[in-house]
Amino acid sequence: MYNINMIKPMIEKETFIYEYNLTNYMGKETWTNEEIELLKKEFYNNNLNDLNKLFPNHSLYGIRNKALRIGLKKDIKDISIYQRKYNVNLEFFNDLNAESCYWLGFISADGCVLNLKKWGMYGLTFTIKSNDRNHLKKLKDKLGGSPIKQNKNQDTIYYRCSSKQLAEQLIYLGIKPRKSLINTYPKSIPEKYHKDFIRGYIDGDGCFSIGTTRQGKLRLTLGIIGTIPLLNSIKQIIKQEVGIDANLSRDKRHNPKISILKYQHKDKVIDLVRWLYYDGCECLERKNNIILEYARAKGVSI
């Protein structure tokens, strides 16, 4: 079952992801003394693309990072422009519809918006479990960006979409950088697409599970992890739309800003699922399969 003890690793997830993404951008690159001297000599005479040709064994971010560390500074445009090897669809979130609001919900849960002016690092990144590769590929197919990569020695995959404009657009729409402890429900989501945003958020930071009651009957439970303001907004929307309430449990031990919103009434959860899901809607297949498994076992339609 979904319980409060699951909170700590989940709320630590984004801190890890943020730091891991930052390391991926910067890279742990070794510089020789000769390379450092050459960088000092050529830094002010070349742009980043030219410097990248002089140092083929180092990334653009590695060059910028090393220059800053040894005191070389100048006004350089955002690195994501120079690094743009892959097309980025900057129009996807211009129209807020069922599809784009779903992905905003998924990003709000599992994505990491980079808006680091000091390093010239902007864009959207994901580090998630490898078994969700096909789902993440759906987002990549819509936004573009770099190929999805398998992280070494880990059961996770990494995806990056470098774009200052994309980062600024996501922030404008209410998706905050380093949001794990300050996340709120975006005011930009149109009322008719609340179900899509919430379903996307659940696919990132929610969990469906099948358990049994004290009487031995099957019960479907939905638990959602998040900040108290965000979960309160989701709770209010669901109560207004579906007419059911839920328990909101604070993680007083690990972090009082994080809670679990839990729906477990055997009949009402099905009503919630029927509101969230509809024919042709975007969803994470493995979580939808849990719902379908429960529906088959209970002999109910979704």
Structure notes:
The protein has 302 residues and is α+β, with helices and mostly antiparallel strands. Among the domains are: 46 residues; 100 residues, Homing endonucleases (Endonuclease I-creI, Roll), CATH 3.10.28.10. It is built from 13 helices and 8 strands. It has a 4-stranded antiparallel beta sheet. A 4-stranded antiparallel beta sheet has the order 5-6-8-7. Helix 7 packs parallel to helix 10. The two termini are 22 Å apart. The relative contact order is 0.13. The N terminus is likely disordered.
Topology:
Blueprint: H1 7-11, H2 13-26, H3 33-42, H4 48-54, H5 60-69, H6 79-82, H7 98-110, E1 111-116, E2 121-129, H8 133-143, E3 149-150, E4 156-162, H9 164-172, H10 194-205, E5 206-212, E6 218-227, H11 228-242, E7 247-251, E8 255-263, H12 268-276, H13 285-298
Antiparallel strand pairs: 1-2, 2-4, 3-4, 5-6, 6-8, 7-8
Radius of gyration: 22 Å
Low-confidence stretches: 1-27, 77-83
Mean pLDDT: 83
Main pleated-sheet profile? 4 strands, antiparallel
What form results from the Cα inertia axes?
elongated
User: How many beta-strand runs?
Assistant: 8
Question: Secondary-structure element sequence?
Answer: HHHHHHHEEHEEHHEEHEEHH
Number of continuous helical runs:
13
